[in-house]
Amino acid sequence: MTSLDSMRYRGKENYNGKAKSEDAVHIEKKIDPEFSIRESPLTVLIENSLHIRAIYHIFVVILLMLFFDTVIYDLVERGKINVGLSVIAYGFGDIRRGALLWLFEFMIAILFFPALKLYAAVGKHVEKYPRASQGFVILGISGLVFLEGALIGVPIWNLSQKHLALASSVTVTCEMFRLAMKIHAVAVACGPRCFGKGPPLPSFQHYVYFIFAPTLVYRDQYPRTKKTRWGVVLFHFIEVAAIIFYNSFLWERFILPYWSDYGKQSRVEAGTVVRGMFACVLPGVLSFLCGFYCVLQAWLNAFAEILRFGDRLFYEV
């Protein structure tokens, strides 16, 4: 190997080593994110970018046009104003059953905390015996799997037995996975503490705070804002309500007319299905964007403001 080749080889080796170290740092930052007081990217863009603000206002104008279109349609065709309430009522149908399923999921999440405390109380005595300690770890993992299995399995079994309206079933399913991930995050963070390693377990108040905090990464402390801006909370909840009506207008005026009678005919033509699919592409995209903004921007920001949770970078951390 010539001297020039060796220099190229060493340069390439140094470059690869540097790239690997940068990748390792990047992965480490992804695994262990840092929390700080900061606003959501969309909040910053809407406040500082005229282009994004214009897009936001365009969606508001579309909502108003859909509202007036629905009012005129209801008056002409039905003789009364409905403004999408029938679609909302149908979507959130059997809300009592959905609320009971959510209460079951929430009680499982709450019961995890005393079980963790009991596990830690026994673990402090078991850590002196290595073999018993290994078996106790396996017992704890098995208990966690059983608890999360009950949290996920019971709602799925209940939903499979009897139909639940779309919006209610989506809410139950999302909360099921959210609470399961919350329990898993606490178990991973606090598992070693049950054997006297690290700081003591969190208080019940902090555990409940984490259950409702808009994050899936557990920390003993989070950056908190000085006060709750109730005007901001009200504004975000108004956005959530507006987006629900937005989706009801889209479904009632652009999606349901194509699919409300689907399957009732003796013969379904392929052209009818293709035409309905392409007709629903644009309303579907708008509905998807509205869902993203409703959950990851309006809803999470409202709860972050209520809880004075400082880090609003929900969809990047």
From TrEMBL:
Keywords: Acyltransferase, Endoplasmic reticulum, Membrane, Transferase, Transmembrane, Transmembrane helix. InterPro entries: MBOAT_fam, Oat_ACAT_DAG_ARE. The keyword Endoplasmic reticulum applies. One of its GO terms (cellular component) is endoplasmic reticulum membrane. GO terms for biological process: cholesterol metabolic process. The chain crosses the membrane at residues 54-76, 97-116, 136-157, 201-218, 230-251, 276-300. It is a multi-pass membrane protein. One of its GO terms (molecular function) is O-acyltransferase activity. It holds the Pfam family MBOAT. It is found in: Endoplasmic reticulum membrane. The keyword Endoplasmic reticulum applies. It comes from the Eukaryota. Belongs to the membrane-bound acyltransferase family. Sterol o-acyltransferase subfamily. This is Uncharacterized protein. It comes from Manduca sexta.
